[in-house]
Amino acid sequence: MSTPTPNKFTPEQEQWLQLLESGKFKQGTRRLKVVKPGEEPCYCCLGLACEFVLKYNETPSLNPTHINFSHGDYAWSSSILPDGTHEGGLWFYSTTGDIEGNRNNDDFWHAISGAGFTGCMTSDLTSYNDSGATFQQIAAAIRAVPWAVFKNFTHPNP
Predict the structure, then answer these.
(1) Which residues constitute the domain of residue 49?
(2) Which residue, 2, 16, 29, 59, could crosslink 130 as a Cys pair with Cβ 3.0–4.6 Å?
(3) How many other CB atoms are found less than 10 A from the CB of residue 101?
């Protein structure tokens, strides 16, 4: 995995967004991943990020033995590289999916509302997921204002 180009999606970010947009995964709430006997797994948007890092990402430097991504009482981690900062190429501001800063919160709120979400403003991806934002709405908002979620993007009006 190389250093990302500023203000450009990394291959891993693009692949994760495509998974969110694909409609192939069942969305769930309150847990990163829930598997019930006889049913397909349900994912939180960040649970799908973890699943991507473990199964879909072909980056050979990943070491899934360091998984510890926290969300509620179900724990995994995106800090899977030796320095613990790159989240498997996803470059989140935080391993809990926080939206960085008040102005970015406003930007993300406008973007996700524009994508059709009608729930309340929150400050992290998991809360949007758990409040009824679809994977497609979350992905659309991230594509519109990536600087709110990924640290390799900067706000266009600093």
Answers:
(1) 11-148
(2) 29
(3) 14
On whether residue 155 sits in a domain, the answer given is no
State CA 108 to chain mean position distance: 13
pLDDT tens track, the chain, 158 positions: 556 788 999 888 899 999 999 999 999 988 878 888 888 888 889 888 877 776 755 554 444 443 344 444 334 444 333 333 455 677 887 767 788 788 888 999 999 999 999 999 998 998 999 999 999 999 999 999 999 998 889 998 87
Query: What is the rounded CA–CA span in Å between residue 109 and residue 7?
Result: 20
Domain count, the chain: 1
Closest CA to 88 of 96, 99, 78: 78
